[in-house]
Amino acid sequence: MRYGEPDDLFDRPEVPVRPFEFDADVARVFPDMVRRSVPGYAELVGLAGLIARRVARPGTQCYDLGCSLGAVTRSILRHTAADVRVVAVDNAPAMVDGLRARLRDVEGADRVEPVCADVQSLSIERASLVVLNLTLQFIPLADRLALLRRIRAGLIPGGVLMLAEKVAVPTEQEGAFLQVLHEDFKRANGYSELAISRKRTALEQVLVPETIEMHEQRLAEAGFSRHCRWFQSLNFVAWVAWT
Ligand SMILES: C[S@@+](CC[C@H](N)C(=O)[O-])C[C@H]1O[C@@H](n2cnc3c(N)ncnc32)[C@H](O)[C@@H]1O
Ligand SMILES: O=C(O)C(=O)C[C@]1(C(=O)O)C=C[C@@H](O)C=C1
Q1: What range(s) does the Methyltransferase domain occupy (predicted)?
Q2: Which value does ipTM take for this structure?
Q3: Closest ligand to Cα 33
Q4: Which residues of 89-102 are buried (b: 16+ CB within 10 A; e: fewer)?
Q5: Which pLDDT tens digit goes with each residue over 43-59?
Q6: Pairwise CA distance, residues 6 & 183, whole Å
Q7: The CATH number of the domain where 153 resides is what?
Q8: Which atom number of ligand 1 is nearest to the Cα of residue 22?
């Protein structure tokens, strides 16, 4: 399977729109899809590696939760030493197959443990870094706090969580403005009106964004002592949170 194909999944009017799923079709086009859909995606991936370089300690593990094809995993590998392991987890079999394929010629790939599992039932231990890059938004709302608490419990003292999410903007004018600009970003990246509208429908009830305030409140409730919001591009925001 090739994983670099152009994303035309939502350009087919004859295919009924169904709820978005990380299946083999999405895995095949994922690098193109995410680059053209998420403003700042390359920076998020690059910065995850730089954060790992600062916080990873010898003998500890970095977790890439909802790793898809492993862009963050590879970024962490590039910036960490041989005594740091990377646990790359996704519950979509097509993504984990793609991750393994894309790790084949990567230096240090023997430090990666690919895991096909639900992050909600994963044991997290000796973690110096946990990354949730655009993953928490797909976890049922009622389960998000419990997941963050388990992550917090699995981090070593001084360990950090990197969280990046699409956010909801509650104020009418600003919310509408950022949504329009995000759709302009997709248009500028070659997506058709049809594709933009069909994907919007497919993501409803599947990707459930929350406000910046809700995320920050939950980080505190999950036991993180402090957090820092370090990135925003349109309606995509990232934080680090410390144990
Ligand atoms: C938008 S993608 C993440 C992108 C990826 N982190 C990156 O930086 O390229 C969301 C991923 O989370 C995975 N995912 C969603 N819910 C999950 C769960 N409960 N357990 C494990 N993986 C999950 C999906 O299969 C998908 O690959
Ligand atoms: O919000 C959108 O329209 C998106 O396309 C965003 C998003 C994401 O944030 O995960 C949704 C699904 C794909 O995984 C790639 C990008």
Answers
A1: 64-159
A2: 0.98
A3: 2
A4: bbbbebbbbbbbeb
A5: 999 999 999 999 999 99
A6: 18
A7: 3.40.50.150
A8: 25
